[in-house]
Amino acid sequence: MSGPASRWDDLRPRLISAAVMISVGALELWLGGPSFTLLVIILTALMLWELGRMTSLSAQSRSPLILAGVGAASLALCIWSGEQAGAALLLVPALCFALTRRRDRRLSAAWAAAAMISGYGLIYLRNEAGTPAILWLVLVVIASDVMGYFAGRILGGPKFWPAISPKKTWSGTVAGWVGAALVGLGFVMAGYAGWGLVALSPLVAFGGQMGDIAESWVKRRAGVKDSSALIPGHGGVLDRFDAMTGAVVLLILLSLLANLPLPVASGG
């Protein structure tokens, strides 16, 4: 069947995969600590593996697995070193991408650095800032993605950046900002944050959208539709967590410029 129905062909596998990911994510957010840290390390390693595969010059190369291992080890050492000097370890995978023979070395190195910084940021936010902050971040990214998906499919309209991401529309982009602002408003109304969070939320959502577009650029240059087929309806781990990567990186950059109105536990 073609026409309107074809726009929703991928909805069922997307919903099933999303339900599984949300369930696992919710459990890990609640558990926190070593369990959450291990999950983030694994996801970061998988993203580096997919990035390595997309930019590899040979389908039989073992370098993607090696890069994933280097990323996992570097992030684990950075987390457990407890020293600022350990932050340099986050750039080790990027250096490996930059110094090995592959397509788009500079672009893949930048993505590797973003993935590592995002992994560290997620772990720090959950274990240091607390559950409300990480929950807000996750909901902002999800709301932006869901609102953007449905608005883009239903409303359509002009493309946001057709040369890089031909499916992304202005209607979906703006709807994503609105969804993020509503998430921020919900946390304000619940007493977890001040009104500044309503303004911060769309900015973080925009960072997520840029992460999505940046990953689309990598895939277009690599000539692939998905980073892998690990997640039914969503492609690969990099496809699913590209927005989270962009959102966390922007959040970290903003935190270096100003004190952010992040949600805190009541009475915290």
Count of strand segments:
2
Identify low-pLDDT runs: none
Query: What value does the average pLDDT take?
Result: 87
What number of structural domains do the residues give? 1
**Helix segment tally:** 9
SS-based structural class?
mainly alpha
What is the end-to-end distance?
54 Å
The proportion of strand residues reads under 5%
Biggest pleated-sheet summary: 2 strands, antiparallel
Measured as a percent range, the helix fraction is over 70%
Task: State the order of secondary-structure elements, H for helix, E for strand.
Answer: HHHHHHEEHHH
Outline type: globular
Lateral strand order in the biggest sheet:
1-2
Describe the 3D structure.
This protein is mainly alpha-helical and 268 residues long. The protein contains nine helices and two strands, in the order ααααααββααα. The protein has helices spanning 11-31, 33-55, 63-81, 92-99, 105-129, 131-155, 170-189, 196-222, 237-257, and strands at residues 159-161, 165-169. It has a two-stranded antiparallel sheet with strand order 1-2.
